[in-house]
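Crash report, auto-generated. Payload:
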Amino acid sequence: MSVARGSLYRTVQRTRNRGLTGLYLLVAALLVAYVSLFPGVLSLAGFSRFTQNWFPLALVTMAQALLMLNGGISLSIGPLVSLGAVIAATTMSGPLGVPGGIVLVAVTGLGVGAVFGTIVALFRLPAIIVTLAGSFIVGGVALLVLPKPGGMVPAWFSDALAGQYPTAFLLLLLVIVGWKVFMATPTGLGLYAAGDNPLGAFRSGVRVERVRIVAFALSGLLTVLAGLFVAAQTGSGDPVIGAPMTLNSIAGAVLGGVGFLGGRGTMRGALAGSLLLAAMINVMFFLGFPPVAQYVAQGLIIVAAVAVPELLSRRQRA
Amino acid sequence: MSAEPSMPLNEATVEARGVHRGFFGNPVLKGVDIALRPGRVHALLGENGAGKSTLINLLSGALLPHAGEVIVDGGSVSRFSPEAARRAGIAVVQQELSLVSELSIAENIGLGAYPRRFGLVDYGALAEGVEQVCRLVGIQENRGTPISALPLGRRQMVEIAKALFRRPRVLILDEPTSSLSAHEAGVLADLVLRLRDEGLAVLYISHRLNEVLALCSHVTVLKDGVVTADRSLAGVSPDELVRLMVGRDAEHLFPSWSPVAGKEIVRLEGFCAGSARDVSFHARRGEVVGVGGLVGQGQEDFLQGLYGAVAARAEAVSIAGSASLPKSVEAANALGIAYVPADRKRESLVLTHSIAINLALPSIGRLARGWSRSRHAEAELVSDLSARLAIKGDPARPVQALSGGNQQKVALAKWLPLKPAILLLNDPTRGVDLDTKREIYRMLRALAADGTLVVLMSSDTPELVHLCDRVYVFREGRVSGVLAHGTISEEAIVGAALGLPERKAA
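Recovered output after restart:
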């Protein structure tokens, strides 16, 4: 069967949905349940609020999935979110203003990511160790910048990002388009290749080290932008606000079917995973679960979500 | 060097002159010359460890020689690299595939050489280029299919298409047919000859001598890091070729044996496991029963179903004295069934651990006294097995330091102390050198003579012909032919594998 010119891209995109049907259905079911429990989410303000709660989680999940697809992982997502938040909160109301703050936050994320990536790629150290060490350093720097919660994000900027309009959702669409474009570049495909089969990718002419550094830099950028958004949401900076984000980002990616060994999974899956997680957290919050029960339930759901498709596929094979 | 008859020598596209290369002070190549010329298929033969892989790596820029030089188009290159080799038009199909499982066939073929438009991959141009090479190698699957959905043989063909996508002038094929079915190997053979006629220089490495004789016109033989022959293949017989490789008169590759009819140990009717469907199978102790056919026709599921590794059911069962199929690997082991997987590196050996541990692993529990391991009994077992199988070297070395053939011997040997009643083998000689093959064949027949039932699944047709009492040929999950002793021939096996009506062998 031959593929007519132009349709190859569509076929490839379609096949990337393989194995995600169950997840999509689950997310759809949860969203339906959510809407029937809280019909308010269908209003503009309700939709905006919901997507604002999802947005930072979506960004860090993408940041994590990006690295996991490349065969890495980051344990410094949380501290880097905090660093992004405190930089935003300390610079935006100062002489740099909002644009200067955004640039500084973005440069910090890219820079920190690139440094991690360079250490991992050139010194061939395990990403988990480098980012574990990095999490202490980045967390410490965040505390140096802003020792206790404070700083300020201009109110107009908070309103624009996290007010009653679904700016967050539009930004997310923008990020997704950006990812689509990135995945249509040789470097984007090289990200998968270097994650799944580094030696084969190297022999094929993929610049494995460069791809890895780019992955870490982009991941750092997405992470600090999540921090910037959180600062805008709360109107101030908090040097430890990102703490739960490290594990949540891994949870979202894993829920979305991204594998730990590199090259397995898709970004659309990771996004669906983060949506599932965000909706779950919201539902439990509004149903008045105590925080401890929330964590336990969250853990159980993650295990179930990973185990059920695996067991189903095993039954199919038998 | 004997001259090529009546053919002027074209200038070599790539050439190695007097190259030396060693690893950790251990010389592997000691002054090797080889010249790949356009329009010629050049065979590189040698046993495992002779230095073939190292030589390929030198010719493709993955390694640099310690002495001597690599010459491209008549000019010496000082800093050769994979990048420079690619620019010079040298493409290598390695034994270890360079494919990415989640990317599509097309994205894999283009990897590292994507056509671009505005910095993005130009999927339209990619589809066109991929279409051409896919036609050449006979890939019919949709180009958007992810690699993970393809069986191993098809992946190998994609790998070859990937090499051709770069329009190479030199194509190096390292054991390209080891995972191919007979049909795919035929497609590849036609392709190689066509590329030769188009003026490519092809270097062909294979342990299958009939392929080498059919395709190649020139041969370089490596033995222990030096060239022992560099000559035309015209008029060379397989026996001579074997002699060139092993450097002495080759005894027959296969041991002589006579059928021993033992007690029936397996009888299955309507057996289904994975893609194997409705298989009727019976076998006696003392037999070597072959399982053949194209790659991926359910043979592996058949073996794994017998081993309890894949869920299986059957209408009627009698296996090793049990009236039901083993439900698990443990149950199969308890019945005396052992399985040697094809992928020795992943499924059968603990690569970073020592030869000794790997050999002893299945026996540690049996040798233990109470809760404590018996080091003494283990050491005895290890030295006994090493001696019986001629596994050379210090058993304390990690298994990954061994050559492929010796690794396979370890993977096989570890089951012998359990004295399995049924030994299931999945392609035990894939990528194994001739000497080791001969040892493995002898061992299998010896095991059968001791009353073991050996079930040998193989993609190497000659070993089914010469080693087996009977051969079951699989096609699309079903048994398409059972060949009894005396009627087994390569033609009959390939015919049954392709679903041709039975015919008398020519």
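Post-recovery validation: Chain A touches chain B through 38 residues (CB under 8 Å).
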